[in-house]
Amino acid sequence: MEKSGTQRPLSLAAAEAVRTYAATARSALGSAEAPVISYAGLWLLLASLAPAAETETDEVLGLNRADARAAALTLLEAPHPTIGAAVAGWLRPGVELSKGLPVMLDPLPDQDGLDAWADEHTRGLITEFPLEIDARTLLVLASALVVTPRWIEPLDDDGEGLLLLEGGFQAVVETEAAGPVAVACPSSEDGISVYSVIAADGVSAADVWLAADEVVRRIDTGEVRNRTFEPGGGDAAGGHAWTVEEVTVFGGAPADRWRSHLPEWSAEDRHDLDAAPGVAEIARGVMAAVEEESEAACVQKAVASYDREGFEAAAVTGMMVRAAAAAPSETTVRQIDLRFDRPHAVVAVARGGAWEGIPLFSSWVTPA
């Protein structure tokens, strides 16, 4: 860590940590083309649990255990016009812990109770908890994150099936990772900027995300301003996602007239996060508190939509610790081996209703 005299404010350090974590997790999960995912929602859960980790978390979370926990608490307690965030935990009654965990634990409810929690803390956008509990479930931890910004002015219809943005932030920016990209962001008074970034056809999704990170960073530092046009060696008359032409306008028009044509869209996705950075390390620390053999799973459900009125997205990230499956008991049985090591037939037969007994597919299999 930096010396106290030069240490950045925790809020700035947390923002940088989450940005870095998002890039690292995107690479580790191969999720560059995921329809919707919240790396911040996962980071919030892991940071809240960071003190349970048995090693420092700087490399995976960008902050040490104490600072990660402090940053998570600050985010959870900080009021924001449109962001809702929550972290919770539940313990099955009768389960003993060998050490405390940095999240308050309530008695484990049934599945309906967990679904109700997800519904309440995502403003109804997610109505089902991403993990299903069973008799082996010992402990459940979760974070919820929801944003619902509205545009200052609803977007128009461009007459061609797309939404038309004539205000807000619009630019063409040269990036290191993806070359020139077009950027559009409707204005909102809700403290959320929703940037759309498009690169040339053939640029990989991973490189587009690197370009998007670069653009946002340059916007935040004031290097890229609204209506910036820097196509970097491209044809100033047009590019992969823009055209430039002379038009006649009346009245006091600005020097340049910018318009973005954006799609209306919605998406939902579910992610197995066991391989995400930091999940295994922190899950081991949590499992160490459970006084029996256990295993862990981490899953996220996320939804998002973008329309003429605004943007909304929500994610619920759940980590479940459950008792390890019992080792099978020993017994004595007959062993009968059937070997299909010569050419043989395979048939698929329907069962039930009007299709009962109908052979659907037949195959003649010749083993290699």
Mind telling me which CATH architecture of the largest domain this is? Answer: 2-Layer Sandwich
CATH class assignment of the largest domain: Alpha Beta
Number of strands: 16
Overall structural domain count: 2
Distance between the termini: 59 Å
CATH superfamily of the largest domain: Antithrombin, subunit I, domain 2
Short description:
With 368 residues, the protein is of the alpha+beta class. The protein has helices spanning 10-29, 39-49, 58-61, 65-77, 111-121, 205-220, 279-287, and strands at 83-91, 105-107, 137-147, 156-157, 163-165, 169-175, 179-185, 196-198, 238-239, 242-243, 260-262, 265-272, 294-306, 311-323, 344-349, 359-365.
Structural key phrases:
alpha+beta; 3-stranded antiparallel β-sheet; globular; Antithrombin, Chain I, domain 2; disordered N terminus; 368 residues; 27% strand; 23% helix; 6-stranded mixed β-sheet; single chain
Q: In terms of topology, how is this protein built?
A:
Layout: H1 10-29, H2 39-49, H3 58-61, H4 65-77, E1 83-91, E2 105-107, H5 111-121, E3 137-147, E4 156-157, E5 163-165, E6 169-175, E7 179-185, E8 196-198, H6 205-220, E9 238-239, E10 242-243, E11 260-262, E12 265-272, H7 279-287, E13 294-306, E14 311-323, E15 344-349, E16 359-365
Helix pairs in contact: 1-6, 2-4
